[in-house]
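cache lookup: miss for this entity combination. No prior model stored, computing from scratch. Input as submitted by user K.M.:
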Amino acid sequence: DIVMTQSPLYLPVTPGESASISCRSSQSLLHSLGKIWLDWHVQKPGQSPQLLIHSASKRASGVPDRFSGSESGTEFTLKISRVEAEDVGIYYCMQGLQTPYTFGQGTKLEIK
Amino acid sequence: EVQLVESGGGLVQPGGSLRLSCAASGFAFKTYWMHWVRRAPGKGLEWVSRINEDGTYTTYANFVEGRFTISRDNARNTLFLQMNSLRVEDTAVYYCVRDLGGQGGYWGQGSLVTVSS
């Protein structure tokens, strides 16, 4: 199974500042057809999870441009600029290259 | 508006069975792969199973061990998860997810399954 490792697991942020979450995969997530099978999902308090980023760097429909994803080999980063109170939640990276799909442990973002 | 509405969860004794349903609306259900993902209390997200567009191909997580069966009825726009031989460790909120890993990823609101004596 592909192992996904996130850091940090807890991320307190001051509103208006930026935040970064890292995710490392145990093997390449690049498919032969060129797609990178890495998603970022967030589960806000009291809600079901929602897709933020797919293919490592492509924002899902309706996601603000404050959210961006990047990749370098097996290292992936979710950056949130100008953090707002509504961004509180648990952020997960996920690989969909092969089954079983696997998630990172989750990063809990809280507002200071 | 896209909607995925799960139902069928509840309290069941160890060794018992439950059938989850997920009613889809607002999109062309028959054109998407569908998945089940769960979140146990205090734990993270865990992928359970997937099914292709016409229901002819399915995949399961190792921990399922032949106990769960995913299926779909495209005429009724509904996804199912039949869960047998349930264990205490299967206690979780089960989410129906459209196109997990793709640009159309969308989660349902979840259905709580509690396995306890």
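stored under new cache key. The interface with chain B takes residues 1, 37, 39, 41, 43, 48-51, 54-55, 58, 60, 90, 92, 94, 96, 99-106 of chain A (CB under 8 Å).
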